[in-house]
Amino acid sequence: MFLERKMSIYKLFSILMLVFLLGDFNGSIIEAANVKSKSNPLVLVSKGKAKRILKFKKEAFQQIDQFSEELIRTARQIWEFAEIAMEEYKSSKLLAQLLKDNGFNVEFGAGGLPVAFVATYGQGRPVIGILGEFDALPGLSQKADSVTQEPITRGEPGHGCGHNLFGTASAGAAIAIKTIMQQHKLKGTIKFFGCPAEETVEGKTYMARDGVFSGLDVCLDWHPSSKNQVSLKTSNALNSFEVIFFGKTSHAAGDPWNGRSALDAVELMNHGVNCLREHVPPTVRIHYVIPEAGKAPNVVPDYAKVWYYVRGKDRQEVEEVYARVLKITEGAVLMTETSHRIHVITGVYNYLKNKVVATVLHHNLQLVGLPSFTPEEQEFARQLQRNFGKKEEGMSTVIEPFSEPKEYIGGGSTDAADVSWLVPTASFNVACWPLHTPGHSWGVVSCSGSPVGFKGMVTAAKVFSGAAIDFLLNPKLIQEAQKEFKEKTKDFVYKCAIPENQKPRIGDKR
Ligand SMILES: [Zn+2]
290-315: per-residue pLDDT in tens? Predict the structure, then answer.
C-alpha cells in the first residue's frame, strides 16, 4: 500500500517534471506519450526519430553485452593493480590501450599529470565527455568475493571505492558509442577522460585548472554505489592543506628552555580550531590528522605537520572558514615562537548538478533496467551485511525515485564538482555492492572484484551509452542543458583552488 502510494506520487512527479521540461518545446501529447514509452527522454523528436534512437541504444547495449567479458577482465586487472592516487601507471595504461585498440586517439599528460589521459573519437559537435577514474585506497588490501575481512597483503592498497569498475564502465561505454557513431555515420565527438587521483581530490582539479574540459557540450559521470539512482544531491566544497611548523630542537630534559616545540604549535592550532567549531555554520566540517609529530619524547620536535580538510556548502563558505583557520595558525606560531608554512594540496567546488543531463541519465537507467542477481549472489550480499552488523537486505533491486533533495546534504567532496562548474554535468549510481555496506571498507574491495560489482559495471556502461546516443541525436537536449547551465553560472568565474603555478606531486611507482 505504502509502496503503491509512493509509486503514484513518483509517477505524478515524473509527469509534472515532463510537463515542466516540455513546456519550452511545445511538445504534443503524442510526443509526451513517447517519453512515457521510455524511447527517448524529454522528447522533441518525431516518432520515427524516437524509434531510430531506441534502435541505436539497443545496438549499443548488445555491443556492451558482447564485450562484457573483456570489460570484466580489464576491471579485474585494475582491481589487482590497486594503484593509489598519482601512481596509477598500469591502470591508466591498460584503459588507454583498450581505447586505442578500439580506434580512439589517446593523449597522456592531461593537466600536467603523467597518468591522466584523454581518449578522443570523432569530429565536430556535439562534444560529449565521459569521466573515468581508477585509483585505489591505501591500506585496504582484501580478497575478492569474500564475506569476511581477509587482506591479500596486510597494509597494501585495495579498491575500496570501486574505481576499477568506474573507469572500465566509462571506457566500455565510450567504445560502444564510438561503434554506433561509426556504423551509422553519426556526427560528433566522444571524449573519455582518464582521471587519476580522485581519492585525494586532485586529478580533475589540475585538469580543470589547465582547461582540459573546455569545449565539451555535456559531461557524463557515474559512481559505483549500494543504490541505483540519479541524484540531484550536491557535494561539499573543500580545501585540503598542510600546515608545517618549524621549531628548535633541544634535549627535552637537559635544556628544554633552549627548545621551541613544533608539536606544541600543532596542538595549540588544533585546540584553536576545535574552539572555532562552535562558531561556524552547521554546514561546515573540519577534520585533521597529524602525519608528523616528532620522533621521540626526549627530543623537543623541531618539525611537525598537521593535515587539514575544511569543507563547506560552497567555495565562499570554505574560503571564509579557511581564512579564520589561517589566523589560528598565526596565533599558534606566536605562542610557541616557531615559524610555519602552508601548503594547499587541493580544493574543490560543490557539485552543480544539471537537471537536464540528470533527467536523460535517469530515463536511460530506467530503460536499461537493473541486473538480475542470482540467489547465490543475493546470499553473498546478505552474509556480507550480517558481518557488517547491517540489515540483511541483499543487493538493491530498485531504482530510487528521481527528485530534488528536500534538505541540504553535503557529505563528501569530489573533484568531479569542478568539472560541473565548467560544463553541464550529472552523475548516476549503480549498485555494485550490498545496501548499507560502509564506503571505503574491505567489503567494497571484496565486491569490486566480484560478480555483483561486474554486473553493476556493465549496467553503468549501458546507461552511459544510452544517454550519449540521446545527446548525439537530439541537439535540443544539449541546448536545454546549456541553457540551464548558463542560468546557474551567470556571473560565475571559475577559480581553481590549487595555486596557479603549483605542479602536481607525481607518484614514483612507475
Ligand atoms: Zn570514489
Answer: 999 999 999 999 999 999 999 999 99
